[in-house]
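Q: What residues go here?
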């Protein structure tokens, strides 16, 4: 059991690293549309390699046994470690001077927002991430699978929705940590979770009513 959890944690850390790399691409580019497109490389590698991303797993909580919740919590921890490692490592590179101020400005925008706004924006992001991952899992052809991933990520970034794991990376790069940061990350995690389970629960309700 311990080996299983450790292996699960490692795949969660790797997912966090992929999101960190995607976030680095986004911060490095001035063109927001291209940046959003290339950010999606992170999620693409996660679904292709079978890594564990919180926003990709939380939507399936009600399809699994209660122990699945432990996997979700482990995923959040691993994702945080992975994003932190990327943000920390970049401080020793020339890339850091190019992205630090952008990350800091993003953090300021998020922390100056109202908590209800953050929650709502996080819910919408959770919906898109569920659709992106589930679209990859259930897509009938390669184009449909890949389009789900890239469009889902692009839309949430361009709309300004809040992705808890991506934000973990931004806070790490900006070296921006205080009590409010962790409180807002908690709200983002909650919102992503609510959004992630909303669509599958609505589908279950529809199926129940049609019986």
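A:
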């Amino acid at each position: 059991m311990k080996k299983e959890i450790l292996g699960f944690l490692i795949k969660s850390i790797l997912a966090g690293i992929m999101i960190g790399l995607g976030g680095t691409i986004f911060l490095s580019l001035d063109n927001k549309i291209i940046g959003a497109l290339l950010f999606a490389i992170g999620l693409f590698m996660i679904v292709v390699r079978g890594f564990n991303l919180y926003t990709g797993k939380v939507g399936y909580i009600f399809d699994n046994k209660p122990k699945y919740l432990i996997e979700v919590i482990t995923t959040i921890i691993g994702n945080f470690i992975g994003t932190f490692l990327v943000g920390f490592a970049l401080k020793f590179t020339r890339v850091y001077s190019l992205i630090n101020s952008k990350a800091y400005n993003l953090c300021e925008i998020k922390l100056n927002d109202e908590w209800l706004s953050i929650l709502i924006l996080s819910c919408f992001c959770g919906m898109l991430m569920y659709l992106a991952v589930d679209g990859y899992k259930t897509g009938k052809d390669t184009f449909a699978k890949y389009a789900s991933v890239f469009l889902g990520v692009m839309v949430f970034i361009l709309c300004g929705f809040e992705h808890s794991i991506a934000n973990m990376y931004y806070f790490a790069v900006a070296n921006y940590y205080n009590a409010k940061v962790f409180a807002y990350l908690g709200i983002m995690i909650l919102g992503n979770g609510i959004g992630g389970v909303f669509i599958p629960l609505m589908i279950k309700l529809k199926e129940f009513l049609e019986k």
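A: Context that may help when evaluating the design: The chain has a mean pLDDT of 95. The chain is about 80% helix and 0% strand.
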